[in-house]
Amino acid sequence: MIGIIDVGGGLRDIYGAGVFDRLLDDGVQIDYCIGVSAGSANCASFVARQRGRNLPFYTEYSARKEYMSAGNLLKKGSYLDLGYVYGTLSAEGGENPLDYDAMMENPTRLTIVATEGETGLPHYFDKREIPRNDYRFLMASSSLPVACRPVEIDGKHYFDGGLADPIPIQKAFDDGCEKLILILTKPVDAPTSDRRDYIGAKVIGKKYPLAAAALLQMAQKYKAGVARAQQLQAEGKLLLIAPDDISGMKTLTKDTAVLTVLYDKGYADAEKIKAFCEAAHA
């Protein structure tokens, strides 16, 4: 079984959107998708076979005050309005709906990673649990501390999946994958910094101390995940797809020109995936 992991990275994950569009154009079959944060949304559209659906979320909708703004923070307590992104825009009748039926009918498995606020542990949602027009699992996976309030599902509160499992290689293997494709949204050798994580941990620490502890460990877990991926690639078990440069982009940088370049990089870099998958199926 061949799996693909998209680790997210906010608006930087337009790179992943380019990768998935190339896979659809090339007719590449993937058996298993696992997404973290924005990566979960990219994976959902890929499994629904909606080529190009994610692109305007990065290049167009992100500029809207309803999507992210100081006004949202003042009025709703969240800089990012995930309800607007995954409800107003994505539900049936919305401006850019996710094709729920196509996503469910596709045999490709989809796993969405979130972090439990109360325990700080990863929670892995399966697409079969997603109710029609209720995309709170995607919201939960993308709920960045400070920028967003945690998302409540069945009495539990969830933060971004990257806190607990930023590069879910082991989960993919545990679920039966034999070969993996890993999408990163910054260069493999990019330095990791936990300075902002300390700020986020301080903000959420009083109410969610275990999630705060997970956040403080996130940079180190990410670094370890990249190192493991490089070793697996040397063994022929994994293919790393990562941009060589991101032009200084941060998680929430809204620069259409840079975003477009990053999308094009993802589309071009994904060329090597087809050969990797063909060799794995041989």
Short account of what is shown:
The chain is an alpha/beta fold.
Helicity range of the residues?
A: 40-55%
Poorly predicted spans? none
Distance between the termini: 12 Å
Helix-strand category: alpha/beta
Largest sheet: 8 strands, mixed
Mean pLDDT: 92
How big a fraction of the residues is strand? 5-15%
User: How many distinct beta strands?
Assistant: 8
Strand/helix succession: EHEHHHHHEEHEEHEHHHEHH
- The oligomeric state is single chain
- Overall geometry comes to globular
- C-alpha Rg (nearest Å): 17 Å
Compute the number of helices: 13
Would you kindly provide a written description of the structure presented here, covering whatever features stand out?
- This protein has 282 residues and is an alpha/beta fold.
- The longest helix is centred in the C-terminal third of the chain and has 17 residues, at 218-234.
- Helix 1 packs parallel to helix 12.
- Strands 1, 2, 3, 4, 5, 6, 7 and 8 form an 8-stranded mixed sheet that branches.
- It contains 13 helices and 8 strands.
- It has helices spanning 14-26, 38-47, 55-59, 70-76, 82-88, 100-105, 136-141, 169-174, 195-204, 209-216, 218-234, 256-269, 271-281; strands at 2-6, 32-36, 109-116, 122-126, 151-153, 156-160, 179-183, 238-241.
List the helices and strands and how they pair.
Elements: E1 2-6, H1 14-26, E2 32-36, H2 38-47, H3 55-59, H4 70-76, H5 82-88, H6 100-105, E3 109-116, E4 122-126, H7 136-141, E5 151-153, E6 156-160, H8 169-174, E7 179-183, H9 195-204, H10 209-216, H11 218-234, E8 238-241, H12 256-269, H13 271-281
Parallel strand pairs: 1-2, 1-7, 2-3, 7-8
Antiparallel strand pairs: 3-4, 3-6, 5-6
Helix pairs in contact: 1-2, 1-12, 9-10
